Amino acid sequence: MDQLGTCPLTQRELVDEYFIEHRTKILDIAAFLDRLDRARERHAEEEFPVVVFCTGLAALLDGGGPSRMFQVQMLLSDPNTDLLERLDRKSAFGAYGAAAASTEA
After folding, report:
1. Angle (CA) 47 51 56, round 5°
2. I need a labelling partner for 61 at 20 to 30 A (CA). Which of 54, 69, 97, 105 fits?
3. CA distance 92 to 73
4. pTM attached to this predicted model
5. Which of 43, 46, 44 is nearest to 55 (CA)?
6. Are residues 32 and 50 in the same domain?
7. Burial category of 47 from C-beta neighbours within 10 Å (exposed 0-12, middle 13-18, buried 19 and up)
8. What angle do CA 34, 35, 37 make, to 5 degrees?
9. Is 58 inside any structural domain?
10. What is the pLDDT of residue 36?
11. Is 53 exposed, middle or buried (0-12, 13-18, 19+ CB in 10 A)?
12. What's the number of domains the chain is made of?
């Protein structure tokens, strides 16, 4: 039988070692989405960070196999390779997008 992956652990070992950690992360995401739904004002649903967050969650559920992490990373990464003449902001936004860049004033 061919070796399917490159992880040295078995699936059972991965579950035994990391399930609780990732269970906590899923609960944290669920709580964030619940708070977003209960927000006093609903005006951010079409904002780039929220859209890319939901797109990333969909990519996780798509069964994309071992490339899920790469797909999500590319959603959140700045595709520009040109160097800036000067720093254009003081902090990161957590996701790349024209909407994120336009929010700084």
Report:
1. 150
2. 97
3. 15
4. 0.69
5. 46
6. no
7. middle
8. 65
9. yes
10. 93
11. buried
12. 2
**Residue 34 falls inside a structural domain:** yes
49 neighbors 100 (Cβ within 8 angstroms): yes
- Which pLDDT does position 29 carry in this prediction? 96
Same domain, 52 and 72: yes
Cβ-based neighbour number of residue 68 at 10 Å: 15
Place of tokens 């902001």: 89
Q: How many CB atoms lie within 10 A of CB 16?
A: 11
- Do 34 and 48 share a domain, yes or no? no
E strands along the chain, which residues? none
Q: Which structure tokens are listed for 31?
A: 């709580």
Along the chain (105 residues), what's the average pLDDT of each consecutive run of 10 residues?
A: 72 96 97 94 86 90 79 84 76 57 44
Identify whether 72 is part of a domain.
yes
Containing structural domain, residue 22: 9-38
Contact 65, 49 (CB under 8 A): no
What 3-state DSSP class applies to 13? helix
